[in-house]
Amino acid sequence: MEALQVASAYLFSVQGLFLVVLGTVLGITMGAIPGLTGAMLIALTLPLTFNMVPVNAFILLISMYVGAISGGLITATLLRMPGTPASIMTTMDGYPMARAGKPGRALGLGITASFVGGCISWVFLISLSGPIARYSTKLGPFDFFALVLLAFVLIASVGGKSMSSAFLSASLGVLASLPGIDKATGNLRLTFGFEELNGGLKLLPVLIGMFAISQVISDLSRIDEKITIIPVKRTRDMFFKLKDWKDQVINLVRSSVIGTWVGILPGIGANIGSVSAYSAAKSMAKPEEQTKFGKGSEVAIVASESANNATIGGALIPLVSLGIPGSVIDAILLGGLLIHGLQPGPLLFQQNPEMVYTIMGAMFVSNVFMFCFMIVAVRYLARLASIPRSMLMPVILVFCIIGSFALSTRMFDVWTMLFFGLLGYGFEKMKIPLAPFVIGFILSPIAEENLQMGLMASNGSFLPLIQGPVSLIFVLSSIVLLSIPLYKRYRYGGSRN
Amino acid sequence: MIRHIIIAGLILLSVFQYFKAGSFGGDDYPRKPVRVVVPFQPGGGSDTFARIVQKAINDDQLMPQPLVIVNKPGGGTSIGSSYVKDARADGYTVLCLHEALMVAKSTGQSPNGPGDYEAVAATGEFGVVILVSEESSYQSLGALMAAAKEQPETLKFGVNLNTPSHFCAIMLENALPGARFRFVATGGGAHRLAGVMGGHLDVIILSIGEYVRFQQNGLKAIAYLGEERIASIPDIPTAEELGFPVFGGNLHYWWFPKGTDQGIVDYFAGVLSKVMKTDYFLGKTKDLEILPRIIVGDEMNTRIRERTEIFDSIKPINRVELPDFTLWNLVSVALFSLVVFWKRWLRPKQELQKSDTLRLRYDLAFGTILMTIVYVLLLGLRIMPFAWATIVFIVASGLLLTRFDKRKFGYVLEVALLMSFGLHFVFTQLFTIDLP
């Protein structure tokens, strides 16, 4: 309980609240500008937090996370461009509704749904993480290895359109994580004689390159894109009325729960959560409502927006209780915990409970602030999309360079970042998804360490992998998830979709 | 209008700050802040220790200039140690690293050994303890070692391979001929702790500070690898008392680059010995169970030589054949590349959807990236300092992206000045982050 007091003392101090406000506003801003994503913002902010108290750093980062997922709905609704990938489904109905003369209503629905989704998943976060963390101290190395295996399969089979390119991306991510010191033998591998590679490729330069630089290149090539924003007037219909609550309550709860569970699954995040809730809402809607999907359905906006915010709480559950990231942003946060000298994993609850409570508290406070701020400021936020890219992009490039330099103060990391930026852009052009790469890069050391630990303990035998109940369940679910799409393809001949 | 005044003010302020900064006076050492390189991530044991010393020096003004901590983690400490080895031997760069320097050299993980530096002092001794679970059937070091001899390579010993913890465990084996553990690579202290709590490991080794923090987790310390018992936990016997003369006591050494003036080395050693007596240092290290000890001169050199000999005599071997992950990974990369290649290019193509009528400006995108590369070169080769290189970069790329529109030149210049001098101010004065 002492830790809870410490955490709330930090959070509710002037500085803590200032960081919540700063983080949420920056997050919403970045979320609202198409082409700038939450992952990019958080990767760029992380180096700036090196000299902050870890707790304060995480108040800021978590607020940014909440803000960035929420801000995307503004541009999705008013510009038909999702500000972040999480809001893709909102575009389908938000924009038609705004075009039909109800932009305020569309935004209001999205904002309230985001808030409710965040709150519901927060309840899951505070009630589930503790028990999972307590239970997971009993999990052995093989269980963790099997869990990571499941994460790989999940991101490939659920994450994107093509399983093979997702697996290719993940394998390349694993490859990028290999150079450096082999933890089990202590020998160097794949360094090709470069002493700079002895420490391996660092997380931040790779992430900044993959997410920020590649995005900057693609934004710059689209510099002539015309942007037309639907103007919003202040209207009363932004707020939920009693009737709205009655109509949407089931949808809200269902979508939030779906979002939370998708969030918990390791590796996949907000966009998948939003898509799943959207399709669930569509299949469960009344026939006359179903016809409205894609043409400005209120149910659809609520489903998409509550689910994408609900993935935040969901994805934080494995992060704080197991040290396994639930989404790409959580992977960056995981790196952030390490950088601040905290050991993510089952023991985080015991060693740094104040950090766990801070993460939980910051998510809630930021969610409340996000709601208030968005309701008041949404009309002005839309204009952010018209900031000229010719000004924005050089500034972002400078920040990328500082960000990757700051970690170890060496130019090598900056070159690494530029290299991965070009690689990331190449991936996008070849339609190879980026997320599996990052998940592979981050999870493979966890997988390798645990497998080596397990094998050293079992004297080289793989049998414990299918002997323990927990690892067996994970292995079996991986096999099932992997074989369903393959079976479907075989069954319905080569014709995909 | 107000906006322009504010921006102009900000620019003036930061330009002023920029030119005010670079002036140092006097010619006695130290004339500027001394950079302490910690080859670990912030927050770890070494980093915490270095920061305690830093605060003690800065608060009590034991030196006219402050210490600045620079973390250079990775590479089994070789990134940080190489950086200091190659730094100018002017006394403004110092490495703070414990016995891992000797261990990394003798295992071949790092090319740098004690001979590459001028050792200043060894400070702050921290011991290690051998721990088992409270429910373990080996409740004493004697019982544990007897079991390790009776059934060699069955007791699972969690260590961080090729680090001091691993070497301590091997020294323990050597103390009873025939005793052999099964070493399990577990990484940091928290992982080891989780392993022994979950019953996946039989015995682990932790620093005394870690043990004190984790005490309530059902752990039992069966031996302390030091010369005498610790005052605050007097009931833990030393390994020597139990008949196993193994010493795992480790100290934080301070190393200047080879060729640093002896006067500077002595001066810094003097400052460190003053640190050991400050109230702040004593209070902080008491909590962390670090002994405020300092060894200098011949005694230190003898200690370095003796420990290096011990480490060199130990050759850790990997006892379990592990699969080759690099090979696995390369196979999977090759396999999936083939599948993707086959699907994309060798199959009849589905018709391409061309809904996007936007003309993509690759020339601008890659022109900007090219400029970024030039910018990084300017910084990396130290041709220009950060602020000037940034002005050049932002003006050049801004002009390119606005397609040399004269009306927008004012904005470009404004952004360039804010980003260069402004960021220089923010990062050197507000956050202390190193700029390229």
Could you please describe the fold and organization of this structure?
The complex is a heterodimer of chains A (497) and B (436). Chain A is an all-alpha fold and 497 residues long. Chain A has one domain. Chain A is 72% helix and 1% strand. Chain A has helices at residues 2-11, 14-32, 38-45, 54-78, 88-99, 103-136, 141-157, 163-177, 203-221, 242-264, 270-284, 287-290, 298-322, 328-339, 348-351, 353-381, 389-406, 411-429, 435-457, 464-467, 469-491; strands at residues 180-181, 188-189. Chain A starts with a helix and ends in a 6-residue tail after the last helix. The mean pLDDT of chain A is 86. Chain B has helices spanning 2-21, 45-60, 78-86, 100-106, 141-150, 164-175, 189-197, 208-214, 262-275, 279-287, 297-313, 325-346, 362-380, 386-401, 409-430, and strands spanning 34-38, 67-71, 93-97, 117-126, 128-133, 156-159, 182-185, 203-207, 219-224, 250-257, 291-295. In chain B, helix 1 (2-21) crosses helix 15 (409-430) and helix 2 packs antiparallel against helix 10 (279-287). Chains A and B meet through helix 8, strand 1, strand 2, helix 9 and helix 17 of A and helix 3, strand 7, helix 7, helix 12 and helix 13 of B.
